[in-house]
Amino acid sequence: MTYERFAYVYDFLMEDVPYGEWLAFFRRHASALSGKKVLDLACGTGEFTWRLAEAGWDVTGADLSDSMLLAARQKMDSKGLAIPLFQQDMRSLEDLGLFDAVTIFCDSLNYLTEEEDIKRTFQGVKKHLKPGGSLLFDVHSLYKMRAIFKDGTFTAVDDSVSYIWNCFDGEYPDSVEHELTFFVREDKLGLYERFDELHVQRAFAIEQYKAWLEEAGFTNIAITADFTDQPPDEASERIFFSCTSGSVRP
To answer: Please, which residues have CB within 8 angstroms of residue 35's CB and are 6 or more apart in sequence?
Structure first.
């Protein structure tokens, strides 16, 4: 997957995403932390990252895509925010220091389709958390993958960017291939350039995520749904996890 062009239209695609609700969830579950240092993993163009910073947190962002990070850097500069940004793969984090909290929001973990990759991510996150630090993340539920995304089509039309978003069953169990076609207006000519993206996401059972967290050494695992502090039910679309790190492994 490449994000070179996708980074350009990402914020348009995500303009209705409730970043404020993620921030409210984070504040509720991180209120007891002893420090304010946060690592925002899979930070993308930095929309949640800058909100954390403006809410008073000492934030570092990391993402796999250099194009996403370039967009994030331009955004931070325009807001006068000096936020460290690093190009790193969440599956193999290295030398980022220790944090009071790590966030992986906006279903970013669903992009890991192999079980071992999720395990490695949890293990790497734990090594970057101070004792008693928190990991907070969300994932698409199995219900959403099976009942909402499956064979779904979503569209949006705007003068500058339009898209068609088709969803198909992926090759993995409970996975979806998101086939996106964008039409982006060129300012000089007034013509539209088309480009296509294919994104693959996979979901696992709640119990499986919980088992992997416990295997990595996390405790106090709280599981809620849809930005609330209520437990998931069979129609929940977004599952939230909040858990605590013990001592840091060598």
So the answer is: 58, 100, 130
